[in-house]
Amino acid sequence: MLASRTSLAALMALPDPGTRAARRHVVTDHDTAAALGSGDVPALATPRLLAWCEAATVEALASGLPDDTTSVGTRMSLEHLHPTPVGAAIDVSAVLSHTDGRLLRFEVVAHDAGGKVIAHGDITRVAVGRDRFLSRLR
Hints:
Elements: H1 2-12, E1 20-26, H2 33-36, H3 46-61, E2 69-80, E3 89-100, E4 103-112, E5 117-129, H4 130-135
Antiparallel strand pairs: 1-3, 2-5, 3-4, 4-5
């Protein structure tokens, strides 16, 4: 019974909507569709952009989750609107827009250096007990 109380207490300690993080990345040859196999062009690959967006959500939660809790991505929706060349700087931001129990939904946006939105979407993460999650890997 104590374990479920700890889990309930951990849920009560989750970050509030409005929690945010931003990261800047510079597109390299390793970030292109050609390098990642998601296309054959030397432009920022959608899978890399999605990974950067997800990393921003993780960063937003980094100081707000209890020590025994982590989060896992469960749903991603990203609209990649404009191509980005190698060498371009991309600013990715994530804002926690909604919580429901363990569910944490983020709005993500990526801008180029000129402020143009190159992508936007939603990423859903779920708060989980770190040890319990890791025990399920075995």
